């Protein structure tokens, strides 16, 4: 059953402080399962080296922490699964292959993917086909390492081919990879006018991961800084039997200036929401 212990520690909003500061904070916040955002200052997935992997593993082991999910940066970086440029595809495959191999070395479970984007004005189906072919290959590689991958829908300003359940499902089906499931992001879901039940009606037990984040309805905000119904979401996730991890994806200002306080306050809000769910108090953010 989902509880506060289902909430991961993450380095979203920690990219301007050393990785060791993030890890120490996660220990203090009693997080043991982590989602590692692949931002270069913490882990360079484009130029991953054996010494870097060993150092990271040592830092984790020394603190009793485990990376459960590796999430490469794939919006701001020059990578795109749907690109028609062979050089960009080669870079994308290299980075995500490295991500899968890092995840396996760290004893993780999931590699986090997004579908990329196609040219505005070209048929969406063309970009979806390109993305599906590349996603299939990465998912198959990950499966060979004993991992699974999860595919997240995006907001319209981020993509034109993975927006909402219909487009996400089209890419997922075309990729045709048993090791590829779905990541439900509450902001991407809300901005598409969809809900928890919609995701589970379409994808069922292929929803393997959740990004639990507030918004208005967009943004990557701490709970209480947006308008989304956290208690309702947690109640619905329990009702459908979801038992995976929940990652708070805080991003941008003001969180980057004091990520310690932001993550502590956000975790406290989620803890309070779970208490309300346990008490049967619905309809309260």
From TrEMBL:
Residue span, Xylose isomerase-like TIM barrel domain: 44-271
UniProt keywords, alphabetically: Carbohydrate metabolism
Superkingdom of this protein's organism: Bacteria
Alphabetized Pfam families for the sequence: AP_endonuc_2
InterPro entries in the record: IolE/XylAMocC-like (IPR050312), Xyl_isomerase-like_sf (IPR036237), Xyl_isomerase-like_TIM-brl (IPR013022)
PANTHER family found in the cross-reference section: HYDROXYPYRUVATE ISOMERASE (PTHR12110), XYLOSE ISOMERASE-LIKE TIM BARREL DOMAIN-CONTAINING PROTEIN (PTHR12110:SF21)
Protein name: Protein FrlC
């Amino acid at each position: 059953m989902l509880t506060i212990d289902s909430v991961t520690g993450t380095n979203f909003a920690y990219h301007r402080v050393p990785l060791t500061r993030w890890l120490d904070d996660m220990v203090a916040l009693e997080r043991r399962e982590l989602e590692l955002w692949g931002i270069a200052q913490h882990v360079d997935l484009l130029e991953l080296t054996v010494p870097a992997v060993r150092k990271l593993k040592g830092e984790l082991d020394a603190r009793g922490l485990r990376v459960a999910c590796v999430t490469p940066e794939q919006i701001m970086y020059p990578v795109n699964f749907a690109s028609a440029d062979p050089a960009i595809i080669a870079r994308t495959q290299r980075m995500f292959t490295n991500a899968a191999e890092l995840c396996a070395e760290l004893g993780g479970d999931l590699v986090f993917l997004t579908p990329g984007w196609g040219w505005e004005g070209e048929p969406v189906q063309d970009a979806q086909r390109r993305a599906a072919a590349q996603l299939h290959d990465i998912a198959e590689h990950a499966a060979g390492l004993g991992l699974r991958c999860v595919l997240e829908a995006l907001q319209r300003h981020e993509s034109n081919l993975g927006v909402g359940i219909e487009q996400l499902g089209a890419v997922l089906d075309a990729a045709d990879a048993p090791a590829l499931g779905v990541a439900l992001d509450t902001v991407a879901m809300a901005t598409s006018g969809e809900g928890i039940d919609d995701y589970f009606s379409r994808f069922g037990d292929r929803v393997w991961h959740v990004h639990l984040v507030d918004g208005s309805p967009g943004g990557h905000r701490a709970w209480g800084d947006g308008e989304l119904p956290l208690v309702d979401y947690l109640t619905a996730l329990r009702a459908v039997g979801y038992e995976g991890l929940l990652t708070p994806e805080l991003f941008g200002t003001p969180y980057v200036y004091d990520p310690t306080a932001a993550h502590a306050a956000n975790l406290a809000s989620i803890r309070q929401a779970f208490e309300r769910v346990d008490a049967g108090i619905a309809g309260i953010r």
